Amino acid sequence: MRVLLAMMLFAGFVGCATYYDYRLDREYGPADPARYDRPPTARADIDFRRDVKPILDSRCVVCHGCYDAPCQLKLSAYQGITRGASKEIVYDAARLVAAEPTRLFTDAGSNAAWRRRGFYPVLNERAPNLEANREGSVMYRMLALKRAHHLPAGAVLPAKDFDFALDRKQQCPRIEEMDQFEAKFPQWGMPYGLPALSEREHDTLARWIEAGAPYTEPAPLPAGYAERIAAWERFLNGDSLKAQLMSRYVYEHWFIGHLYFDDMPGNEYFELVRSATPPGEPIKLIVSRRPYDDPGVARVYYRLRRYPETLLTKTHLPYALNTARMAKIKSWFLDAPYEVTALPSYEPEQASNPFITFRQLPVNARYRLMLEEAQFQVVQMQLEPGDKIVIYSDGVTEAENAAGEFSDTERLRTCLRENASLGAAELHEKLLGALDAFVEGGVVRDDITALVLEYT
Ligand code: HEC
Description:
Elements: H1 2-28, H2 48-59, H3 78-83, H4 111-116, H5 130-135, H6 138-148, H7 178-184, H8 199-210, H9 225-235, H10 241-254, E1 258-261, E2 270-275, E3 301-306, E4 318-321, H11 323-335, H12 348-351, H13 354-357, H14 363-371, E5 388-392, H15 394-398, H16 409-418, H17 424-439, E6 450-454
Parallel strand pairs: 1-4
Antiparallel strand pairs: 2-3, 5-6
The structure holds heme C.
């Protein structure tokens, strides 16, 4: 009986969604996944870059900017909005086999291709008229929902209505499921769990969606960029075996960075990508899961691709390119006297081990490339006044007491937590005092150094 009821409920739900789909199709025609591959151009009164993007950047990308954004909806680029959303979660501990990556600007090249990968639109892809653009758009309705249900009053949001856990269960309604979503979760309009957009911001986004989401291309790169890009691409695509191995090494360290020319205006960033085409031709991206995967072409070219998304502190690893840097890399890798006799293969056992792949490169060159810009490897962190940084040698966590026990990291953490309100000097004293008390009677074998910094 219970099974039957569940089946009936399920049939009811599917029926509803299908009915809604049918209703949308009947009223607004069939969906055209290629509609935003040819987006309407900007109008004088509403412009994506001038009017819309600043609102998305200040109110939405904080959640909708990462690879694992809610519903995989990335609002950090126009192409992310038109790609839409997916119910697949990116980090799923219960998954047994590798997921196919869904990196924007990498793993599919058109909205129709994303539809085949399970993404559904958040903009209207049916008839391009005002009503359909509103009613047929998940994004419009998510914004309207917030407008109709502002945040409840009170200092803290009620936990029964809002869940902020990292593994929060997502609904990710498609347009056919929006009626049910609105009825069931009236508080969940966008931006989720935050104050509503201002009237002006809301009207701007609404007008843009009503107008069919017109698009403006980014402004061309300022003068001088083409020349710098050409110089670096020439440098990274030398024909000698030495040059090819150098470039592979450089790429496998820089692929994650946001490269920029520090003598140029414009706040423009670039990614170093592998291409099947040489400098001077349009980039033909080699798509691979890892940077050392077999590129599948006889000759790889390393190219600079303009970074197309909003920059987010959490993923922004800036790396400066300039003539001094190029000269250094050239002297370490190209001018140094050594031979590369053959290029290493891309067989996984070899390619995944940099000590094997790059063993023909001089040790000096290898470590210098990393050391020169060591802060590039370090993740940024936002500090507030009163925050402290504790830097310590491993002697602090590996000091032994008379009973042969180690003063491990947990003990250190507890001590720091309990004394977090002290100033840097007192905290330092407390830390060493606690360590002294712990090792009483034990043998100190390692150096014990601790530095406490306070941000004021
Ligand atoms: C605090 C984080 C946060 C902010 C900020 C935020 N969102 Fe969301 N967004 C979410 C979450 C979480 C969901 C998933 C809700 C669910 O379905 O369970 C979501 C879902 C969505 C969806 C639905 C996707 C789908 O598959 O149905 C849209 C559209 C959307 N957001 C648009 C926006 C817009 C536009 C803004 C800025 C005005 C915004 N969001 C700001 C967290 C946020």
